[in-house]
Amino acid sequence: MADHYEVLGVARDASPDEIKKAYRRLARQLHPDVNPGEDASEQFKLVTHAYDVLSDPEQRQRYDMGGDSAGGFGGAAGFGGFSDIFETFFGGGGSGGRAGRPRSRRERGQDALVRVTLELGDVVFGVHRDIEVDTAVLCDTCQGSCCQPGTQPVTCDVCHGAGNVQRTVRSLLGNVVTSQPCNVCQGYGTTIPYPCTTCQGQGRVRARRTVSLDIPAGVETGLRLQLPGSGEVGPAGGPNGDLYLEVTVDTHDVFSREGDDLLATLEVSMPDAVLGATTTIESLDGPVDLELRPGVQSGDVLTIKGRGITPLRGSTRGDLRVGVHVVTPTRLDAKERALIEELKKRTKAPGPRLAEFHQGMFAKLRDRFRNS
Ligand SMILES: [Zn+2]
Ligand SMILES: [Zn+2]
Asked: Is the pLDDT of residue 296 over 50?
């Protein structure tokens, strides 16, 4: 990247007026309308960019402090940390305005994503898991220095440690200096004469690592948990990336989830529904005693407080809600049939009759009765 002052042919302490005059003079010479050559058009762009930067007091100040980067990023450089982010992604050599500053071999490691499948019971209480991840870890041999033990990087002969090489191009504006990353050291400013043989000079090696973690209660399918610093180690012993854990919760044969509540169906025989019964159900917490009142109806819901899911944030567990499904007997022998007919006669049971459709929060449960 050419130096803006040199491009305009003015001193570094030139006044705004001098800068404007220099630009006008050059623009007249180089304007594409006057001077249709390709070289002149390139020079015109350089001159215009230089003027844009130096004629704006704020941009000029930033440029003087080394903050102007190549190709139209002048405005963006105003955001704090932009240059650092830029360097993280593209390496220091990428920002042409920063000639003379070698890039670092040390970079942050990549983030990693691991998928983990849980059972519903794991979600109720939370669960401890040891998860195997393929990752990069610090090289034991060189501890991230990338060099064979006892050796170290040496200053690059070509760029003398700058990481960049300057090239002077003669042009009609005088000498224009451009800066490019050094080919010999890839912009690091140093070379490694004896790379570590364990990691081939990378400072890190591939490895399978066990990550031990407590998955909190209440997680849902699709949720991603972030484990800062548990991703792979960066090149040359750079800081670790993050590890993301993506959760899938398997469907359960009996229990389903609605918010923090657990839902299930309780099948009840006709005599038990009529006479009432006590029973013990196997919840995810273990056995729970249930009392069925005489005359319990299909669609009635029994709520067992605090036996649902512990929410991800908070500690009050949801409820276990059990929808009653009265099972109508289908195969009757002659004796049973006679008893039911007798019952019908004695109770003067009304025939089928139309009533309001039963809708609402337990429609889901009834759908399950129908489908089962
Ligand atoms: Zn090594
Ligand atoms: Zn070099």
From this structure: yes
Domains in the chain: boundaries: 4-89, 112-249, 256-371
Which residues are found with C-beta within 5 Å of the ion, ligand 1?
A: 139, 141-142, 196, 198-199
The phi and psi torsions of 155 (rounded to 5 degrees) equal: -60, 135
Tell me the pTM.
0.59
What architecture is domain 112-249? Ribbon (2.10)
pLDDT tens sequence across 193-228: 999 999 999 999 999 989 888 999 999 999 999 999
> Does the structural domain 4-89 have CATH classification 3.30.1700.10?
no
Q: How confident is the model at residue 363 (pLDDT cuts 50, 70, 90)?
A: low
The CATH number of the structural domain formed by 256-371 is 2.60.260.20
Q: Which of 264, 256, 250 is nearest to 221 (CA)?
A: 250
6: tokens are 């040199």
How many angstroms does the Cα of residue 162 sit away from the middle of ligand 2?
A: 7
For the CA atoms of the chain, what is the radius of gyration?
38
Ligand nearest to the CA of 164: 2
| Ligand 1 center–CA 237 separation, angstroms | 10
